[in-house]
Design goal:
There is one protein chain. By secondary structure, this protein is mainly alpha-helical. The protein has a two-stranded antiparallel sheet. A hairpin with a 3-residue loop joins strand 1 and strand 2. Helix 2 crosses helix 3. The longest helix has 41 residues.
Length: 211
Amino acid sequence: MAPAGSARGDRAGGAAGPAVGLAMALAAALALSTALRMPAAWASGNALNHVSGAWLTLADDLAHGTLYRPLHDPALGYGGTRYLPLAFALQAALLRAGAGLLASGWALSAAAGALLVAGGFLLLRALGLRKAPALAFAALALGGFAAQHALSAIRGDLLPVALSALALAALARLRGPPRVAAAAVLLSLAFAAKPTAVTAAAAGALWLAAR
């Protein structure tokens, strides 16, 4: 006779099977639809607006040697910003390397989306999920309107979220001083992309305090 605990585990595993399969199917459909949609979205530029223009201008200015143009300048026009520099500094580096203005921005948006999925996967694995459901749920993070819009736009919203997810994954997966050091570096980079990323640092601090 099988132990009662084993029987309960078998029933739970059987019940979880269809749910995991559904999550995997949804994640695969999302990945395929996103891959098919993005080229057309980028070609049309329908997600670009004045916010994207501000980010593009900051990157272009930095690529030409100006970090944060003055509030008013006869040559450059008006400036000033509340945006922190990491995202547009990375784009400026791509511009200096010869990439196009729009192409470099969209490349960074796509890279940030990939980092978000990677961070979510590592975090969910650290919390005990198996590889398949962890990958599925991490990919589904891109399923909402905000993430889809961020992928097709050029702005600095997706990168700090991705870095925050990686920081929380480092806290959950690593042990000892490397855990705090890796998380601190990633959280600092996230904050350098957007100040609201401080919420991830607060979440990490609460998690450490509760352990």
